[in-house]
Design a protein that fits this description.
With 426 residues, the chain is α+β, with helices and mostly antiparallel strands. The protein contains eleven helices and 15 strands. The longest helix has 19 residues.
């Protein structure tokens, strides 16, 4: 996808928007399930959606038991329920990962109930796929705090007729067992201003779009929530943030009177695209979501190496904030998160992002709701004890050394402390 730059005039227009949309309820004879994606009327309209989209919503009382269990599956079966309780999920090998796109080890598997599922897996080696650990804890953490991400479930696969290398499909076939993750293919109504459903969004363009909103409660809320999400990205070291890792979606039914659905010109792509009219707004509830957060809980860098995924040493070697230079005036210094973004993130990746005090305080208030039991549940459901190396962490303040899963818990709490004890300029 080609990079998009926002002109100063485009951004400035945001300040003059009347941020209200009149939308009628969707009729029964038109289903969003028939829509491939939404083509918004212009880049201007897309920026309006980005500026005003929901970033945070109250998840309610998420208990440690709920963290362990994960979000309920909307469509389930006895075999999946057993798998979520820790029993191996039987399936037969269906398709190698190389045919599915991307570089993360994966394959398609057919369950006894006839469902073809895509699983990401680890072969258990030192250089195995660590994303099956990091994606689980990151997705559950975002959900527990109230930020939008897709559910990811830790499972064990008992694969029959599986090749030695399920990613390539090569090697002798046999029954094999893998630690894996399962991510349901949920229906999301994605909004883009071109013909690429993976357009996504850049952290920099959302930051600028919010900055150009008119002064008032809306801009204050959006800035607070976006800075909190940005700081959370630093906390988990989410540096692999190319645009397709983020998603702009519509959280409501489309207004059928705001456009029309028809196939893309020159393409036979199956489901039609909903084309929004220039004078209308098809969605009254845009939402910002993170959809690929596997390269987390390590040390983010210009390249997404194995140390970027569930690596305790690399994660704890990155303080949450960059060191602030003392100010002789005594003013509260600016806060910048300590985050190196990947080269693939390109322009707008927002490395070492600036964090305002309202956003810092908001994230602190959400993290304060997590008890020790919550954090233990996060690490238990991620199965960190099954990582190939032994984990130890020494608390620099007390000198106490922790080992195993408690090391992850103690390090997590120390990073929360770093956010709690800091104050930032607005």
């Amino acid at each position: 996808m080609s990079a998009k730059k926002l002109s100063a005039s485009t951004l400035a227009v945001i300040a003059g928007l009347v941020l209200a949309t009149s939308v009628i309820a969707q009729s029964d004879n038109q289903s969003d399930k028939q829509i491939a994606f939404v083509h918004v009327s212009s880049a201007y309209q897309r920026i309006k959606y980005l500026a005003t989209a929901e970033i945070w919503s109250d998840p309610g009382d998420v208990t440690p038991e709920m963290v362990l269990a994960g979000r309920p599956l909307k469509e389930s079966s006895p075999e999946f329920e057993a798998a979520l309780r820790g029993e191996p999920l039987p399936c037969s090998f269906a398709k190698p990962g190389k045919d599915l796109g991307g570089n993360t080890p994966k394959f398609d598997c057919l369950t006894p109930g006839g469902a073809t599922i895509r699983v990401k897996y680890s072969d258990g080696s030192k250089d195995g796929n660590r994303e099956i650990f990091s994606a689980v804890v990151s997705a559950k953490l975002l959900w527990a705090l109230g930020f939008k991400s897709d559910p990811i479930y830790p499972i064990t696969i008992a694969c029959s007729d599986c090749p030695e290398n399920p990613m390539s499909g090569a090697g002798k076939r046999a029954r094999r067992s893998y630690l894996a993750t399962f991510q349901p293919q949920l229906r999301r109504l994605v909004m883009v201003d071109g013909d690429d459903a993976d357009e996504g969004w850049r952290w920099g363009e959302v930051d600028e779009a919010i900055a150009n909103l008119p002064e008032g409660p809306l801009r204050t809320r959006q800035r607070t929530h976006f800075d909190a999400l940005t700081l959370l990205g630093v906390f988990i070291q989410h540096g692999d943030r190319k645009p397709e890792q983020q998603r702009l979606e519509c959280g409501s039914a489309l207004d059928p009177g705001a456009g029309e659905a028809h196939p893309l010109e020159g393409k036979d792509s199956g489901a039609p695209v909903f084309f929004e009219r220039p004078d209308a707004s098809a969605c009254n509830a845009p939402v910002l979501a993170l959809q690929d957060i596997g390269a987390t809980f390590g040390g983010a860098g210009r390249m997404s190496k194995s140390t970027a995924k569930m690596n305790l040493e690399a994660w704890t070697n990155r303080p949450v904030f960059k060191s602030a230079k003392p100010d002789s005036s005594g003013a509260v210094p600016e806060c910048h998160g300590n985050l190196t973004v990947s080269m693939a993130a390109g322009e707008g990746g927002r490395g070492d992002p600036r964090i305002g005090e309202a956003g810092r305080a908001f994230l602190q208030s959400r993290l304060a709701l997590l008890s020790d039991e919550h954090v233990h549940a996060l690490m238990a459901t991620a199965r960190v004890e099954k990582l190939s190396e032994r984990h130890t962490w020494r608390d620099p303040r007390t000198g106490k050394t922790y080992a195993g899963s408690p090391a992850w818990v103690a390090a997590f709490k120390d990073k929360v402390r770093q956010i709690t004890e800091r104050r930032c300029a607005e």
